[in-house]
Amino acid sequence: MSNDALRERPAVPGRTGAPLTEQPPDEVAHDGYRIVAIQRADAPSGSAGRDWHKYLISQGINMITGYRRGEPAVVTADVEKIVAALNERRHVKRGRVDLRPGRRATPVATPGATPGEDES
To answer: Which residues contact 6 (CB under 8 A, 6 or more apart)?
Structure first.
């Protein structure tokens, strides 16, 4: 995919840095999640504090944007854990539950019958 194919998103008020694109860079592995960027950011609306960071995670053409509060090293470690967990979920083969209705394992008592009563 050429850079000409990338479309820039409209500018976000108060945002600094390179323009965000509709698609991740060409060097992204198209099957796994990876960190595209982590940068300082203003606090999300309704939040307080000055130590916020915005992170971008990509998977193929999908982009995830998140915000995390903390020191840069801690935020980076947290986002790396998020990416590792996302990638682990993609590759773990879980057992499938059979949801087809079937016979019950134990017989159902008939109404009016007393347990232990002989039907003869």
So the answer is: 21, 22, 23
